[in-house]
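Progress against Task 2.4 (sequence-to-structure conversion) is shown through the following example record, which the project officer requested during the mid-term review.
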Amino acid sequence: MLPARPPALVPVLVGPTAVGKTAVAAAWADLAPVAVISADARQVYRGLDIGTAKPEPALRARVPHFGLDMVEPGERYSAGRFARDAAGWLATIRAAGRQPLVVGGTGLYVRALAEGLFHEPPLDPERRERLRAWAARLPAARLAHWAARLDPRFSGGGRQRAARAVEVALLTGRALSWWQAHARASGVMRPWYVRLTLSREALHRRIAARVDRMLAAGLVDEVRGLLRRGVPPQAPGLDGIGYREVVAMLEGRLRPDALREAIVAATRRYAKRQETWFRHQLRATGDGRREGGAVWTLDATEPPTVLAERIAARWHAATRPASRLPQPGAAR
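Structure tokens generated for the chain above:
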């Protein structure tokens, strides 16, 4: 019996919010026929466009994108579902003759693709529903407190992630982090990581500029429209940064003149958590020949076109057939 073929190598472009991942991916698409898989836990929601910085329609018309507009804001979409969906997207992209490119800042989504998720034990449906109803009534800070008490390795990330940590811990008797470490399935791809970084000052400037663009583009009206459509204020989609601050303002819990700074501050905190996660949690596979499994870190102050050219060239070198690679001792 022949051994199973290992998952294919796939480039994965990661980095904190506002670092410039979308612009670099768009520039790479000018050099090669790629299709983007969005590893972003907020861009999966329909109608949440401005506050999630979804790619512009013109870019989406030019470059196929997967993982956008998957569910309504009131629905839940998990890393497990993302991994299952992405396995199909990878096959679809390759069948169309394009190169898949994973782009995003949600670490758990990236990990689900690269390392697989844990095999979840059966959870009692009735107890699970009662827990979800209880969690929905708790303030976000209190829910995060319980998640951290039940799982010391809980690192934050919003109501949905906190509720999940509480649910798994109470219904299985073990922390979510334990299950993730001890009951993991195999991934659907081998990652070839490129991590974009900026100095703190430069990233903070980009974050502030992005928030200003979102507010000028109508973020508040976007949220008003969602609420008028009947989306609950506590819906999973409205738990994201920017949306929850606008909801708080519309409900009178945040002064309008404090909205911008509240979103900027929350985004900076989130970006810091992303940087920490990508610096310590990525487990690169490499191609076994050239990259040696390292995560390639690039300074994102360079123009996106320059970064894309460097990435495309290195990817081409990393994926050339072995017969074309220089052999040890061969003439150069």
